[in-house]
Design goal:
By secondary structure, the chain is of the alpha+beta class. It is 41% helix and 19% strand. The chain folds into two domains: 34 residues; 202 residues, NADH Oxidase (3-Layer(aba) Sandwich).
Length: 280
Amino acid sequence: MLSMANKNQFGVRRNFLKYLGASLIVACGAVAWFVSETSFHKSSSGGPTGTPLKKYMLPIPKFSSKVMLEEAIAWRRSLREYKEEPITIENLSMLLWAAQGVNEFNYGLRTVPSAGGTYPIDVYVSICDNGVLMEGMEHLPSGSYKYNCKDHSLRLIKTGNVRDALATASLKQDWVSNAVISIVVFATYERTTKVYGERGQRYVHMEDGHVGQNIYLMATALNLGAVVIGAFDDNKVKESLGAEPIEQPLYVIPVSVPKEPYRITEQELSDYYQKVRQSE
């Protein structure tokens, strides 16, 4: 038989263990929630800053352009001179959907062909101050973002105006400095080469070309100007946007409202070919 003192001591210990167990459960639950709900972006040195990544859902793509495919192909040009005005969030949505968006719903296939559906491409976008206009005259915060094709969203990677750093990484080309956004196409080669070996690198570059042309054509259909750039410092581009070490930059594509859109007519096209044929 336990004495009264021993019973009281045993009760205190039991209550303490219950309290300790409940506290551990709450603490573990809080940690699990924090890990599941919070992502961290990397600083320029590659370490976590502890700042939660913010996610922005893009407007759902709409098939509302008044430009026919034939016209977009005819009017596609590399345009490097831009007006100092923002593009809309709807236009940014369409550009990113054209680059890597989903257009098949059983397997999540995308708007560009990919060898074996390996999809080695990831798309980032640099946005300057007041570069993208949203509803209510608000602007998307400046910074670098990574596109998520699955739910058509942007995740903020680095805050602030990263355009200057990207322009410096792009050998100080003026069109990067002047564009309100730049779409940057990255490749993780291993996704494709682990299936196709060394030849998979060719397939990655083919896919990159499809992405670039899709962006060109969509920009044309939206009355925007774009130019693809291949001259840049890879490591500085990655650093400026906060890309992953395994991701390799292939294209920097400034996009903005052009000072003068490029346009030709059917008659001009016909006159050109007739003149060439008559001279042969």
